[in-house]
């Protein structure tokens, strides 16, 4: 009887082998095909920029329901500010709240510039003109924003901008808002 059970167990284990191989093959094929993706998602450009300039956990991505008024004001200011020269509209955006009490915006700007230049191949664009001089960042004292702008050289006319609020947001334990934006030329101009 024990010999018969052993034969049954051995025969049964052989019948499952092709199924297991098929499952393993399908899993491997799915992993390999998923790894072959060459087109980046739209968010990957802004995600990478945000992670390099304002990394978590010190700075935290701001969910859509948080600071809606401040975010809307920043988007409106950005489009109006760049409209004269660049005529752009925001097509994608990401917001971050800096760590409480953070005041070193130059460090964020430096990290962002390095990332956009080295990783994305972006070129800084002048955002302020004073006669013959160009400035690649600008601080708007009246509105309380600092802006950086880069043109991406990937075949499509696209820009990346980073805007930082100069003041702490109310009710945030001294946190500032940083916005990352993908911009394209406006269709109406």
Description:
This protein has 189 residues and is an alpha+beta fold. It is 40% helix and 27% strand. It is built from 4 helices and 9 strands; from the N terminus they run ααβαβαβββββββ. It has helices at residues 2-35, 42-53, 68-83, 105-118, and strands spanning 60-61, 88-97, 123-124, 128-130, 133-135, 137-140, 145-153, 157-165, 177-185. The strands form 2 sheets. Strands 1, 2, 3, 6, 7, 8 and 9 form a 7-stranded antiparallel β-sheet that branches. β4 and β5 (133-135) form a beta hairpin. α2 packs across α4 (105-118). The radius of gyration is 26 Å and the shape is globular. Mean pLDDT is 75; it is low at 26-42 and 130-134.
Highlighted features:
189 residues; alpha+beta; 7-stranded antiparallel sheet; two-stranded antiparallel sheet; 40% helix; 27% strand
Brief description of this entry?
It is built from four helices and nine strands; from the N terminus they run ααβαβαβββββββ.
Q: How many DSSP helices?
A: 4
Helix proportion: 40-55%
| Poorly predicted ranges | 26-42, 130-134
- Rg calculated over all Cα atoms: 26 Å
The end-to-end distance, rounded to whole angstroms, is 88 Å
Percent of residues in beta strands: 25-35%
SSE ordering:
HHEHEHEEEEEEE
Shape: globular
Mean pLDDT: 75
The secondary structure category is alpha+beta
What does the main sheet amount to? 7 strands, antiparallel
Please report the total strand number as a whole number. Answer: 9
